[in-house]
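hi! just following up on the protien thing from before. the input was this:
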Amino acid sequence: MDRFIFLTFNGLSIGMVYAGVALALVLIWRSTRVLNFAQGAMATACAYVAITVQQHTGSYWLGFAAALVAGFVLGVLIERIFFRRLEGAPPLNSIVVGVGLLILIEAGLGMIYGVANRPLQNAFSKIDYKLGHAALFSNQDIFTVGSVLGVMVLFAALFTRTDLGLRMRAAAYAPEVARLLGVRVGRMLTLGWALAGVVGALAGLLVIPTGLGLYPAAIDGVFVLGFTGAVVGGLESPAGAVVGGVTTGLVLSYAQGYIGSDVTQLAALVLLVAVLLVRPEGLFSSTRARQV
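and the predicted 3d structure came back as:
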């Protein structure tokens, strides 16, 4: 029983990290209709900003804030320089550009910082709270859960309760119509990329201290699992991103604990295929409009 409890809490903790990556993907999809395959590399670049500021100032929180600002700026620059030119182009073009940016950013980080693995500090202690002999969670896990749930609530409210969120969605779904209605489509797309950059930076700061270490390709594997969580939950729903990320974390934790670490990636693939076969739009996809 202790083992099951440990695996459950471990899966919830890891799943919240995947949920952070999934939230960034959902945010950029809802606000721009682009799947950003460079999101993991952007988060890694922001983590390097954090560790650089921490080393020069000795303050974790200054580095944390600098990483979030860097995510915002990087999102703006990438949208303005690269993806703004792809408006109206086939969807495959944005995928190719995203993969190209992934390679470019990781290569640039390797040239600037090297490829050595660097430790990144946690915000809080990793001392576990226990139930019997089972280690359940730590202060860092509480911070991770609170951060991801807070981001989910904020963006759910943004897209459903505010005029700004409505304009962002209109710019993504029907840019020509939105322009006729007076929406600054370019600004809305840029804002979507900037906010996704902030969320991606936060996800990077949460995931790298969990044992990955910081190196140019540190988040590639986590990005794949975060993408799995986003697809499982449905790319339209912030809540679905969190549920999908947590589901992915639980499946991997149980598979690793009861079967073995060799099957964890296979377990993620089985989960993804099963959801796509039963509900291709994801578990939290919005209901399709009725055809007349």
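Residues 287-292 have pLDDT under 50 and may be disordered.
The longest helix spans residues 2-32.
cheers
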